[in-house]
Amino acid sequence: MKYNFKYLLFVLLGCQVYTLYSQQAIVRYKGEIQKTYQDSFVVAFEQRKDVPMHVKQRLSNTYYSALPEFFELRISKNESYYFEDESLDNIEGYNIGSLSPISDYYTNSLKVLMIEYTSSFGKVKRVALDWDLSSGDTKQIGDYTCFKATATERLFSRQGFYYNRDVVAWFTPEIPLHFGPAHYSGLPGLVI
If pLDDT is split at 50, 70 and 90, which confidence band does 166 have? Predict the structure, then answer.
């Protein structure tokens, strides 16, 4: 049985935007495992015959007791800094952990520069994604009308091979800041 792990990544269920003054803002994101995919993954995993019952139970307990994680995007004119805000995490429960981005990101839109700060490799220059805005799909997220953007990112697996993953971002031109969480930037509005 194949599992579609791309749906286990966290989903940004909400964000709050605090505008300080012209071209400066703090955006707070909350990341959680999406319930629909959480259920389908756990059920499929529990049906595997090659995994001991105690491992199945541990995985089930881990996913169903996962707590949200909180991230902050600080924007100042043409620069942004994205990081996990551990001060908002509940230290008594299990967080999403390795399923969510754990690196900090610096972006400078004027220099077309994006740097990921990793614990393993230090500073890593990232290449901006090639976004496709042609779908015309829209949806309301909170008070904002958001537009769909898609891209394909090339990743390197822990098993030692490259693979592609489709990415969907929802952005709003109502907040004309060209930034978003992690390296999902460069759209004509804030990624919600």
Answer: very high
